């Protein structure tokens, strides 16, 4: 099944036709993969979400934004029947874990009024200092999903 993806009607996504073709766990990094700016670049909490504009800002008024493609892919995995057997996880190397969890609860993933937050879409969270190798070992243990059944998105190639 092909569907239009994001704002480009010419871009289509060929969705898997069976659960054997989908990963069991899709893991996203947070900083500069799901949102920008990165946590080390901002003033931090308290974070404020404007109910009218849905913009989220840090203590100094800097807006933290979810990338449209990240929002679209998470929404697709969270809601489309082709991904019914797929869970979502995040793995982020930061010592600002509480900021990350707060922002995850503030960002809506769909703009249809019945949106779920990023935190509600995610089944496993590993946000801590350390290496991605350590994150994945913990995610494998927590989820029971083998590495070959995981798909990982990160802006830093050295993490992949």
TrEMBL record:
Native species: Ostreococcus mediterraneus
Protein name: Magnesium-dependent phosphatase-1
An example molecular function term from Gene Ontology annotations: acid phosphatase activity
NCBIfam families the UniProt entry points to: MDP-1 (TIGR01685)
């Amino acid at each position: 099944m092909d569907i239009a993806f994001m704002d480009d009607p010419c871009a289509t996504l060929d969705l898997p036709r069976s659960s054997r073709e989908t990963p069991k766990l899709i893991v996203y990094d947070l900083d500069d993969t799901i949102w920008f700016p990165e946590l080390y670049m901002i003033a931090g909490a308290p974070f404020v979400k404007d109910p009218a504009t849905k913009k989220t800002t840090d203590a100094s008024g800097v807006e933290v934004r979810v990338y449209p493609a990240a929002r679209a892919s998470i929404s697709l995995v969270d809601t489309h029947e082709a991904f019914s057997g797929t869970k979502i996880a995040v793995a982020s190397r930061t010592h600002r874990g509480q900021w990350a969890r707060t922002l995850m609860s503030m960002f809506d993933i769909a703009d249809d009024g019945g949106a779920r937050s990023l935190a509600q879409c995610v089944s496993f969270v590993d946000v801590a200092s350390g290496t991605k190798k350590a994150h994945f070992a913990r995610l494998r243990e927590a989820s029971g999903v083998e590495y070959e059944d995981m798909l990982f998105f990160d802006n830093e190639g050295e993490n992949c």
